[in-house]
Amino acid sequence: MSDRSLANIYAQPADVLEPVAAFLKAVEYLRLDPEARDIEADLLEYAQQLLQLHTDNAKSAYWTAEAAPCVTHANEVQYA
């Protein structure tokens, strides 16, 4: 994956929810325009892919980081 992948840009769950919420709000308004079906479908697909990518990465990280340190704050390290 490149450094500009969505998994790196939206690394935390809170980061991913803001753009998805914006996409869904845009879809809500696009539904008022019958000629905007293509854009509406693209935004829904993009939001779904973004959430799926983040979910897959979180599952992968969970299964591979069983003994890896997890930094919760600047000076705190917890081991799973």
Task: Characterize the structure shown.
With 80 residues, this protein is mainly alpha-helical. It has one domain. It contains 3 helices and 2 strands. Helix 2 runs antiparallel to helix 3 (37-64). The radius of gyration is 17 Å and the shape is elongated.
Q: Return residue spans where pLDDT drops below 50 for at least 5 consecutive residues.
A: none
Q: Report the helical percentage.
A: 55-70%
Question: How many structural units, i.e. domains?
Answer: 1
What oligomeric state best describes the polypeptide chains here? single chain
Number of strands: 2
Euclidean distance between termini CA atoms: 26 Å
Radius of gyration: 17 Å
- Average pLDDT value? 75
The DSSP helix count reads 3
String of helices and strands: HHHEE
Overall geometry comes to elongated
What is the strand arrangement across the widest sheet? 1-2
Largest β-sheet summary: 2 strands, antiparallel
Work out the strand percent.
Answer: 5-15%
Structural class: mainly alpha
Task: Jot down its keywords.
80 residues, mainly alpha
SSE topology:
Blueprint (H helix, E strand, L loop, with lengths): L5 H4 L3 H18 L6 H28 L4 E5 L2 E4 L1
Antiparallel strand pairs: 1-2
Compact summary:
Helices cover 62% and strands 11% of the residues. A two-stranded antiparallel sheet has the order 1-2.
